[in-house]
UniProtKB/TrEMBL annotation, chains A, B:
The keyword Oxidoreductase applies. Pfam families: FAD_binding_2 (PF00890). It comes from the Bacteria. The keyword Oxidoreductase applies. Keywords: FAD, Flavoprotein, Oxidoreductase. InterPro entries: FAD-dep_OxRdtase_2_FAD-bd, FAD-oxidoreductase_2, FAD/NAD-bd_sf, Flavocytochrome_c, Succ_DH/fumarate_Rdtase_cat_sf. Its main location: other. Residues 8-350 form the FAD-dependent oxidoreductase 2 FAD-binding domain. It is found in: Cell envelope. This is Flavocytochrome c. Its cofactor is FAD. One of its GO terms (cellular component) is cell envelope. It comes from Shewanella baltica (strain OS155 / ATCC BAA-1091).
Amino acid sequence: MTLDAGSEYHPYLQQLGGHSVARTYQTSVSCGAGITQPLLKECYRIGVQTHNRSKFEGFLLGEKGNVVGVKMRENYHFGEDQPGKVLNIRAKRGVIMATGGFAQNIDLRMAQDPTLTSEVGCTNIPGATGEGMLEMFRLGAVPVHLAHIQSGPWASPDEGGFGYVSNYSIYNFPHSIAVNCLTGKRFMNEIADRKTRADAELACRDAKGEPLPPILITSYKDSKQHPNTAKVIKYNVGWKFDTLETLAKHFDVPLKALEAQIKEYNGYVKTGDDKQFGKNMSKAKDKYLEAPFTVVRLWPKVHYCQGGVQVTTKAEVKDSLTGMPILGLYAAGEVCGGIHGVSRLGSCSIPECMVMGMTAARSIMNA
Amino acid sequence: MTLDAGSEYHPYLQQLGGHSVARTYQTSVSCGAGITQPLLKECYRIGVQTHNRSKFEGFLLGEKGNVVGVKMRENYHFGEDQPGKVLNIRAKRGVIMATGGFAQNIDLRMAQDPTLTSEVGCTNIPGATGEGMLEMFRLGAVPVHLAHIQSGPWASPDEGGFGYVSNYSIYNFPHSIAVNCLTGKRFMNEIADRKTRADAELACRDAKGEPLPPILITSYKDSKQHPNTAKVIKYNVGWKFDTLETLAKHFDVPLKALEAQIKEYNGYVKTGDDKQFGKNMSKAKDKYLEAPFTVVRLWPKVHYCQGGVQVTTKAEVKDSLTGMPILGLYAAGEVCGGIHGVSRLGSCSIPECMVMGMTAARSIMNA
């Protein structure tokens, strides 16, 4: 379906966070817009109407508590005090909520996980504040897994949002080392699941307990294949070093310890057996760490909320007291909870959105 | 306050689940009723009215959405179809919800943690089904940590509820070994936090993946001090064996492996250093495992819901959209979320109930 609509994909498989093998094709623009934009164009072609600059303000309910529409504020610009008119939009068959997660709602995410302070950035749009989900809870939807929030361990504190570094480091993690600047040593399996790595990065602190972002060290020869490498260097969110000495001096890392770490790691590249953290070294084969190096800094950004409302396999939103669907209410995507468990694997939100979006559409047409 | 009301405590400190040292005095009846019953008597003495056999059916709301009372069904017997009249009870100052957790609501707990099927028992009363919490979510309370549900790793599959074994094993864990019947080997630190142990027990399965409850092996000489030891043997939920051979035969455990395990463990008793699971051996000092043995079977029971509604430090229930208190609504005890984090430490619900119960009462008197 996405190919029919015009999506394009990189011609190679990638091994994303938490996966045991390389099994993911990524869009050639390396983000979800490579799927949503072609689908949106296709929607316009077949006559679907959309409303941009509009804010969901609540549900319209029928006499039996069923959902018969939504309140929508027109002409809305996020965070600005210039509210448009609120329209009541009636739904012929039902409402599908696809309002995403709440990663930008700092109060709500800190209620679930106190480590996710404003000190931790976020890859989501500013409007990912979860009011759609919260309104569904007021209707009686079942809250599931809100406490399971995933931070992306591939993000950089040196740029906003997803930026250029995220895809750079996702590509390079398999043949790179992540190093704690205080010790000069590795501190994690660089391709462990996202939560394990984000927690490990957040634990990298200076003597006063302040954040000390760790660094990802890659051989320049192995990093330069990725299209973002030139960009991270150009925009000063990544740096190239000709020698280990200049690298260590730049980040104030103990040189001797770092030298020993790289020597040790190159031994694992040779044997294919990472005795420090059990990393799968198959994608690091023959990729010894050697100068010149490319380096980026890492600090997690809140990326995905595993939690949300409970849905049936038909994408119906369940009522917490009756266990039955709330009539007229459907949901798909990140706003749903319980699909991915404690930590979503990289790339698995795409099939969830596609499959459950289509399922919700089919359910609503049969309602 | 509890001493003034007449509570009595065992004269020795106990080291409960997840604690690093022995720091808990337990009531002499070894359960919370040793606190609640004396407090209830004291309430009657000062003229407090209570309503037993009554079911909470929802809130009465004022014009501004503030809570001004509750609907209460009289003459209610749990699970029976003989509903009494529903009364509207007006609250002069506000309502304090102390409705406990939802450990008996199998649908809701499985939505949060699919391993907590009906196969896993529960220590709570049958009415711990969470409707009070769910009604608060409908008013806009913030759901926090619902996915963090604790199972008691000290429970027995051979009796209902908390039973006799739970306190027996809590007392004996420090100087006992828990053994997987399939391997004859230990599989956990017997005094790790509750969640770690419950997860380890649930992983004990036979070749077909069916539950194979592990066994807790204690020297009879060290178990007999606990008042429940005679009871677990009398009621056939624990057994005494004169030799390791009869024990191994009874539970179909490989004898050689079990012999080797006990020899190894007794080495740790001697050195004070558990090289298998890092258990703190200080309470096992000089307590070598020797025949005759007392044995109980272990299988987790859902015990405590860390999750619930978010409250302020004044025990006010917060609104998910405004972040302000929902006027007239207070909560204390297990129905609150976010107090204990991922896994509550043994005994820590008592101070939470006492402190936040008093806090809620003070807030309501100042409202």
